[in-house]
Amino acid sequence: MHYLAGLSLGYAVPRNIAGQVHSVFDRACNILLSDGALFSLFSRQLANAPLALRLDIAGGLEAWFVPGQPFVLRNGSWRSPQCQGSTHALPIWQPERQPSQLSHAALRRNVQQVQQAWCDWQQTRPLLALPTVLLALCQQLQQGIAQQDTSAVLAFSEQLLGWGQGLTPSGDDVLVACLAVLWRWREQQAVARHLLHALQASLPTQLARTHSISQHYLRQALAGQFSEPLEQLLAQLLTQTDAVALQQAVAQMLAQGASSGADGLYGVLLTLQALLPPLDGENE
After folding, report:
1. What is the CATH number that goes with domain 2-93?
2. How do the domains of the chain map onto residue ranges?
3. pLDDT of residue 279
4. Do the Cβ atoms of 167 and 203 come closer than 8 Å?
5. Which residues pair with residue 31 across a beta bridge?
6. Can you give the pTM of this predicted structure?
7. Rg of the chain's alpha carbons, rounded to an integer?
8. How many Å from the N-terminal Cα to the C-terminal Cα in the chain?
9. Buried b / exposed e along 211-246 (16+ C-beta atoms within 10 A)
10. 199 Cβ partners below 8 Å, 6+ apart?
């Protein structure tokens, strides 16, 4: 039996797992757990995630895993019919949760830098750019957040759910990023906390409208769990003034999937821009 070495383990991975292979791709394999969550095995090219084990393998996971196969992780050792490995002594990935300390002026400068990077990406990849209809829905969601209109936020969030192509549709990627910002600002802004609670109550009843893999990421987002690129982007954007480090975090975010990272980047932007106070009313 082939041994696959590990690189790192997400902080939310349980000690014991018993499931079956749900889906397999070149660089990722998803294991369906009894509670409906997906535990993922990633190649080394992919970033950390809360419920994932990164393997020291370049790709080709289809050679080792087949949908429907059993998978077991017990006491630090995992096994499937064709391969096995260990999680003993692996570094645990855990995002650093720093409170936002930037002034509104510094935060606006960071937002402008990210906005320019997103616009450049959209212009150079027209086939992957967000379509006009989806942009209109996003703008309506942004307006609802800015106006603290809970009914509008819930209505447009439900319209975004499952909107787009692929296993994680663009609308879902936007929603995950929106939830990430609300989680980070829930202690600072009552409106962020209120909207987060409203979405936590509403979205779970609608998740069947999108793909099972996207459902998993949305459930994690509703529980405050996000991928390493998104966590790093928010850490740089909300707490640091290093333009080069922010540029690197944006690049890592944009490298996620065909357009998932860019769609998530837009979700971060629209939510922050809605939550920031008007220029005339802020204390710099």
Report:
1. 2.40.50
2. 2-93, 104-281
3. 67
4. no
5. 21, 39
6. 0.95
7. 19
8. 62
9. bebbbbbbbbbbebbbbbbbbbbbbbbbbbeeeeeb
10. 153, 154, 157, 179, 182, 222
